[in-house]
Amino acid sequence: MGNEPAGRTTGHRCMLRWFALACACAATHLAVTLPAFAQSADGYPQKPVRVYVPYGPGGVGDLTMRLLADQLSRELKQSFVIENRPGAGGIVAMTEVLRAPADGLTLGEMGNGQSISMSLFSKLPYDVLNDFTQVSVAASFEMLLAVPDSSPYKTLGDLVDAARKSPGKLNLGAINPGSTQNLSAHLFQQVTGADYTIVPYRTTPDLVTALLRGDVDLAFDFYAALQPVIGPGKVRIIATSARSAIPCSRRCGPHRKAASRATLSPVGTASRCAAALRPISSLC
């Protein structure tokens, strides 16, 4: 600390610590999963396929899977139907996938929230590692911290200092508990040592509406969810967990956002269903 530039506040030091932790754990990896197949998949899929999404309509997880479903429908000449089952850290959606016949006609979106659930809940109705076959990683996203454009807080240090001076006064919005956004809010609070009132919202559109109305002072979500409302009179981006810069808007300042995507080979399955899905179940 002895070589710290003059004027560097404790809030700024906490900001750097939060960036380091967020870069390590806040990116969401959206994976298509399915039960281990027990039968042949000639002509797959012969019927419409249901895709269970553990998030509400309008969020980045939902929009990603809708794009992917359109892509799969075009390539495989069959309907892929989105079924939204938000809440409980993804348990509801993953349970639906687990209960379905192992015929490849039921798929699910598995985000890192499902992995996080293993540490949040003492007992789950499934084993994330053994009950599902991972087909691919469809996309990954970085976390953004946003404020209303009218907010008096111009930097992350401003937010931290204000929260420390008035504990619990600032409302911090994020979608449902167990989500990456919600856990990022708790991580931010823990690392900065500042006390916020964390307000959970069921869906991303609900959160964005609250941010635009000023019901919350700051909020965590992904770039794809916030991009339409970034700009004068709407939303300003204070910080991000990413490392490579892109121009959000002229009023965003030197903030960063990155997206990386990769396709993974299915684990423990030789099914033609997985083989048919794997080459096209990524938005790369």
Q: How does this structure look, described?
A:
The protein has two domains: 10-26 and 142-240, Periplasmic binding protein-like II (D-Maltodextrin-Binding Protein, domain 2, 3-Layer(aba) Sandwich), CATH 3.40.190.10; 28-141 and 261-280, D-Maltodextrin-Binding Protein, domain 2. With 284 residues, the protein is of the alpha/beta class. It is elongated. The protein has helices spanning 10-25, 60-76, 91-99, 112-120, 156-165, 180-192, 204-213, 223-226, 272-277, and strands at 28-34, 49-53, 80-84, 106-110, 133-141, 143-148, 171-175, 197-201, 218-222, 235-240. The chain is 33% helix and 20% strand. The longest helix is centred in the N-terminal third of the chain and has 17 residues, at 60-76. α6 links the parallel β7 (171-175) and β8 (197-201). α1 crosses α5 (156-165) and α1 packs antiparallel against α6 (180-192). It has nine helices and ten strands. Strands 3-2-4-1-5 form a five-stranded mixed sheet, sandwiched between helices.
The fraction of residues assigned to DSSP E strands is: 15-25%
Spell the H/E element sequence. HEEHEHEHEEHEHEHEHEH
Uncertain regions spanning at least 5 consecutive residues: 1-30, 245-270
Mean pLDDT score: 74
What's the shape? Answer: elongated
Describe the main β-sheet briefly: 5 strands, mixed
Total of DSSP H or I helical runs spanning 4+ residues: 9
When the domains are counted, the total is: 2
Q: Please give the CATH class of the largest domain.
A: Alpha Beta
- Residue share in helices? 25-40%
- How far apart are the termini? 42 Å
- CATH fold type of the largest domain: D-Maltodextrin-Binding Protein, domain 2
Instruction: Calculate Rg over CA atoms.
Output: 20 Å
What class do helices, strands and sheet pairing give?
A: alpha/beta
